[in-house]
């Protein structure tokens, strides 16, 4: 996913989070406001409720007090009547029979004028009825046995009112108000009793005005119903006991006043009651107010408040909902904008991705092409219009078979993906390799919707890989395997040989004197020779053989699995090797001329398990070395004795490096004479005094010095030693005319530092340079002729002379030689020594002498061993000689002795 798409997603997530937070805050705020409002309203209602109850309590308390006072008044009137009667009885003693009539009338009057009194009776000290207001009483009536009477009789009570009592005579309830009276002597004389009808209270209560829901009732101290307004139903009559647990509990507590909430036992309505004891009388005034009625206004207000709350809550909810909807809408809008933004960004990315360097092809599930990008068109050469609607089979190259495609699609169906290399065909028919990726695309529901193929043209990469492979493993000049590939093949071959118990062979082929071809004919010709040789050998060998060029003119052949028999393999390989030699020996036509080359072949048979690749390489190297040492143009099989020779060679090289440091070098000087036998000069010849080997010939080590560039240091030492010798001889009159010829290797001469080194020697030794002769060979002028000539001219300017050594053995152009600042030609000893035996050699020597004369050069013959040779040379006008005939190379002291004598 791109950075843009990621940012958009982050924004959407952030916006969603913010929206949810806002939503939560709004809802929480609304609920909080609702709660606060409800708490406020609740508090208001409870406060009003409390006030209503308090007001009602005050009201019913006041009412109860009124009832209380009124009830007390009723009993006070009865008490007044009884008091007056007892006073009368006490004053007049009216209890005897003569006063009975008068008494009877008083009682009647009292009963008549005091409506609350139903009857008044007088009881004597014995409890017998003395008189009654109605006169209807039974004369046998006696209350002596009652507690009511005994309380008076025994003086415990002066005046007393009973709770409701059921009259046995008429089965009605009455209240009895009694008062004790005494005789004139102060003795207990009896009791006057007024019988009060409870109905009196009911009638009075009826006169009272009560509020709606209010009730006023009187009950006796035993909680028996006396009177009530509003009048209860008939079922609740006077004397009915109201025995609710709450009232009983209050009675036992003995409190004078009490408020309580409970369901009225009379009408079942819940009331708030105020209960008061009516003075000391056995009566309770109970004023109640119907809570339902009482709280109707409060309920209305509560209802209104609740309605208001509900309305506010609903309005608030509506507002909140509206706000949330707006928030949601805004959020959705933003989300949609962001989604659209994201979709746009993704579309841009998809469009950008589609226009990639990769070719993209999209098909439907049936493989019908729906879309391709520009890269795809560019790679295949088809326009989109030519592709869309077709099947990708149109690009098939035919290089992959049906099984390949079956496997490919099986994998796509199984895993959803396939990738690999495939060859397809462009519109122009060209086949090309591509790296193809096929992906199945599924919908969210898991239905296959498309296939998307991406491809990159890898033809350039493959070509580059091929080129890299070619460069890495093949020789650029000949196209043969290079050393690296050859080593690899050898490793593989060796394992195979060992596994199958078969023999193989390794051949190293070296073109003889190839350096000379290079040096004389130039590198281009050398290259042509190498290519020709490679082609011919390749044609001759079988496909299973590996032919490689390991470097310069070194070729190698690996022959695998020849035979299980060692000897058989050797014979077969020998035949192959001879054929190779014969092939090499055929003339090679170059641009202007045709040349012949020969080769040397070293062979080793690979048969044993005990050797590895390096061992066999070493063996074949030694065999080749031996083949060359044997005189070239031949072959040589490796045998273990070669190893010792090679070791010796290695040791020699190591010793050579030590020689300089250990001052094992010494210069010998071989005389050069004129036709009188007078020594005119000497050739300085290097000798190596090895502590173990003794005197080692330069022929054995000069090539080694040249091969590892030690020649520059050793050559400088030689020149310096010879120059010191010249400087010393210059001091001697009989030696001062001697020349010293110093051999300069072509490698030494070509070295960039050569002139500087020589100048250094001259400066150090202060040698007489006109006595110094530098011997160079023809090979020096094959390559970089001008450089060699320039150096010679520079030295010539210093007085140094030049002698051309080994003349006749090389390929020098005589015309060029004429341009060189030479002073002398030195006829090679190989011609001189055969001058009498070989007419050809004689002819060469003769022509050399003539040539030298024509070029105005001195001529000297080397290798003169016999007087006959000297005579022939003299006869042919050669007047300078060097050879064993005149003296072998000896020390400088020996030369001095030869000239000066002892
Ligand atoms: N670059 C240098 N090359 C050097 C130097 N010293 C010697 N050499 C070259 O080594 C080759 C072998 O030299 P050497 O073994 O010293 O042989 C020389 C003579 O001893 C030998 N010679 C001379 N006269 C005769 C003879 O009558 N018969 C015969 N069989 N051999 C004889 O010839 C060698 C001299 O040859 P040349 O140099 O071509 O004049 C040899 O190629 C030396 O050049 C050195 O310091 N540097």
UniProtKB/TrEMBL annotation:
GO biological process terms held by the UniProt record: cellular response to nitric oxide
Residue intervals of the PAC domain: 416-470
Catalysis performed (reactions): 3',3'-c-di-GMP + H2O = 5'-phosphoguanylyl(3'->5')guanosine + H(+)
A Pfam family hit: EAL
Molecular-function GO term, any one: cyclic-guanylate-specific phosphodiesterase activity
Keyword Nuclease belongs to the record: no
NCBIfam families: GGDEF (TIGR00254), sensory_box (TIGR00229)
Protein name: cyclic-guanylate-specific phosphodiesterase
């Amino acid at each position: 996913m791109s950075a843009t798409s990621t940012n958009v997603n982050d924004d959407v997530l952030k916006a969603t989070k913010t929206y949810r937070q806002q939503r939560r805050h709004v809802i929480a705020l609304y609920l909080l406001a609702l709660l606060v409002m409800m708490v406020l309203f609740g508090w208001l209602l409870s406060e009003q409720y409390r006030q209503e109850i308090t007001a009602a309590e005050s009201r019913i308390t006041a009412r109860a007090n009124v009832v209380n006072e009124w009830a007390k008044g009723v009993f006070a009137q009865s008490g007044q009547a009884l008091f007056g009667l007892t006073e009368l009885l006490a004053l007049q003693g009216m209890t005897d029979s003569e006063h009975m009539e008068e008494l009877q009338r008083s009682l009647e009057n009292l009963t008549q004028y005091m409506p609350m009194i139903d009857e008044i009776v007088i009881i004597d000290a014995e409890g017998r009825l003395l008189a009654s207001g109605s006169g209807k009483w039974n004369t046998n009536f006696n209350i002596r046995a009652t507690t009511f009477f005994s309380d008076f009789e025994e003086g415990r009570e002066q005046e007393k009112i009973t709770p409701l009592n059921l009259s046995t005579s008429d089965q009605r309830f009455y209240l009895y108000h009694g008062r004790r009276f005494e005789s004139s002597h102060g003795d207990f004389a009896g009791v006057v009793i007024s019988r009060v009808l409870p109905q009196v209270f009911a009638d009075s209560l009826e006169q009272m005005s009560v509020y709606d829901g209010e009730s006023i009732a009187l009950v006796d101290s035993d909680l028996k119903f006396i009177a009530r307004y509003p009048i209860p139903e008939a079922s609740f009559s006077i004397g009915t006991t109201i025995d609710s647990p709450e009232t009983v509990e209050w009675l036992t507590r003995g409190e004078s006043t009490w408020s309580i909430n409970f369901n009225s036992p009379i009408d079942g309505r819940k009331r708030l009651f105020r209960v008061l004891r009516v003075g000391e009388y056995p009566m309770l005034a109970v004023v109640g107010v119907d809570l339902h009625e009482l709280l109707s206004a409060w309920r209305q207000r509560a209802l209104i408040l609740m309605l208001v709350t509900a309305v506010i809550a609903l309005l608030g909810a509506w507002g909140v909902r509206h706000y949330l909807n707006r928030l949601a809408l805004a959020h959705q809008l933003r989300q949609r904008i962001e989604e659209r933004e994201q979709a746009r960004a993704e579309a841009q990315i998809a469009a950008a991705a589609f226009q990639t360097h990769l070719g993209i092809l999209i098909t439907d599930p049936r493989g019908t092409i729906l879309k391709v990008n520009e890269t795809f068109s560019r790679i295949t050469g088809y326009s989109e219009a030519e592709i869309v609607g077709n099947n990708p089979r149109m690009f098939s190259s035919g290089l992959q078979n049906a099984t390949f495609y079956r496997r490919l699609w099986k994998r796509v169906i199984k895993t959803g993906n396939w990738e690999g290399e495939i060859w397809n065909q462009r519109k122009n028919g060209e086949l090309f390799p591509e790296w193809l990726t096929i992906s199945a695309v599924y919908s969210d529901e898991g239905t296959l919707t498309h296939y998307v193929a991406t491809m990159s043209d890898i033809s350039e990469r493959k070509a580059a890989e091929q080129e890299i492979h070619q460069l890495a493993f093949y020789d650029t000049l000949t196209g043969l395997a290079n050393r690296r590939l050859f080593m690899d093949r050898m490793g593989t071959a060796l394992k195979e040989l060992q596994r199958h118990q078969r023999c193989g062979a390794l051949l190293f082929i070296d073109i003889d004197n190839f350096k000379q071809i290079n040096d004389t004919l130039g590198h281009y010709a050398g290259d042509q020779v190498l290519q020709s040789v490679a082609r011919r050998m390749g044609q001759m060998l079988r496909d299973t053989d590996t032919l490689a060029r390991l470097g310069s003119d070194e070729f190698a052949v690996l022959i695998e699995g020849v035979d299980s028999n060692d000897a058989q393999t050797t014979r077969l390989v020998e035949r192959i090797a001879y054929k190779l030699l014969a092939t090499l020996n055929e003339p090679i036509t170059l641009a202007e001329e045709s040349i012949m080359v020969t080769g040397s072949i070293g062979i080793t048979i690979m048969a044993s398990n005990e050797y590895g690749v390096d061992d066999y390489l070493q063996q074949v190297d030694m065999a080749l070395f031996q083949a060359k040492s044997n005189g070239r143009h031949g072959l040589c099989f490796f045998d273990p004795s070669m190893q010792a020779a090679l070791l010796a060679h290695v040791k020699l090289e190591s010793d050579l490096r030590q020689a300089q440091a250990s001052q094992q070098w010494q210069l010998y000087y071989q005389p050069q004479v004129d036709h009188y036998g007078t020594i005119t000069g000497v050739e300085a010849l290097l000798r190596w005094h090895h502590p173990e080997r003794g005197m080692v010939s330069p022929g054995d080590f000069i090539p080694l010095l040249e091969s590892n560039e030690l020649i520059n240091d050793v050559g400088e030492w030689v020149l310096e030693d010879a120059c010191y010798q010249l400087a010393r001889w210059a001091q001697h009159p009989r030696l001062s005319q001697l020349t010293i010829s110093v051999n300069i290797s072509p490698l030494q001469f070509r070295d960039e530092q050569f002139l500087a080194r020589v100048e250094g020697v001259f400066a150090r030794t202060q040698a007489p340079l006109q006595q110094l002769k530098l011997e160079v060979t023809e090979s020096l002028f094959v390559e970089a002729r001008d450089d060699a000539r320039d150096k010679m001219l520079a030295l010539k300017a210093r007085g140094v002379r030049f002698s051309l050594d080994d003349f006749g053995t090389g390929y020098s152009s005589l015309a060029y030689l004429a341009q060189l600042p030479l002073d002398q030609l030195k006829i090679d000893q190989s011609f001189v020594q055969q001058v009498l035996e070989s007419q050809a050699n004689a002819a060469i020597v003769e022509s050399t002498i003539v040539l030298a004369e024509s070029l105005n050069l001195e001529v000297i013959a080397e290798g003169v061993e016999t007087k006959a040779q000297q005579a022939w040379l003299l006869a042919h006008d050669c007047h300078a000689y060097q050879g064993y005939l005149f003296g072998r190379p000896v020390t400088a002291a020996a030369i001095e002795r030869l000239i000066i004598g002892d």
